[in-house]
Amino acid sequence: MIKISPLFSGSKGNCTLVQSAEANLLLDLGYGYKQILSALARHNITPTDIDGIVVTHEHSDHVSALQYWARRYRTKVFVPSLISDYVSAAAYCGTVTPIQGSFAVKDIDVDFYECSHDSRSCYGYRFTSDGLSAASVTDTGKTDAKLVDFLLPCVTVQLESNHDEDMLFNGRYPYFLKRRISSDFGHLSNKQSAEVLALLLNGNLKNVILAHLSEQNNTKELAFGSAVSVLKDKGVVEGKDVSVYVADQYFNGITV
Length: 256
Hints:
Helix content is 29%, strand content 25%. It is of the alpha/beta class.
């Protein structure tokens, strides 16, 4: 068994619960500390039930609550090796473990993918337990064959679908920020995300969670429509062959 439940997902903050038969992991702690506790309580999870925290990168929308958590709990925190010292100092966290390769937390095996993002280091992760895999990849600006290969074994994929290209370029953001978001070191668009999904249909894919949506440059309807359009072109029926969900910034009832 492997389950992914996005608690909060978007430009204001990110946190995802990953569960197996034996373990509970948090992927990022980038939202309000009290809100995260409340979201976990809705899943009947307390902080002492969390067996590990896995961090994607050091931007505040992914680690802002870590310092508050670390003051109260000695949960082991796994981070990309290049940012381990930074996270330890910034979050006053003494339980940081640099990721040097694949690792395990109880019955969950964790592998990583190096994202292309304007951070010191950023990883996407694949979680495998009892022969089933689920992955989460956000905060990456480009797609490649390595990304597809990384996601191909997964039954469930949480993938960034950050912006609609027309909304971004016709919106009010300054030019430099538009360039940053759309660059190879920014975020995936709806179109890029859909193109990746199309390449995963020959694998084990059953569930897709579209994540890290921009509130200014995207809508749930546009992200969902882009993904479903690609599935339809491939003869795949959404909700029957593959189910598509859209993660929310404020709280998600999604568990897949």
